[in-house]
Amino acid sequence: MTIDLIFNGANLFVLPFWALIIFLPNWKVTRKIMESFIPFLLLVVVYLYLLIISLTPESAAALSNPNLSDIAKFFGEKSAAATGWLHFLVMDLFVGRWIYWEGQRTGVWTVHSIIFCLFAGPFGLLSHILTDWITQKFFSNSTEQTTETSTFINE
Question: How many angstroms separate the CA atoms of 41 and 87, rounded?
Answer without folding.
Answer: 12
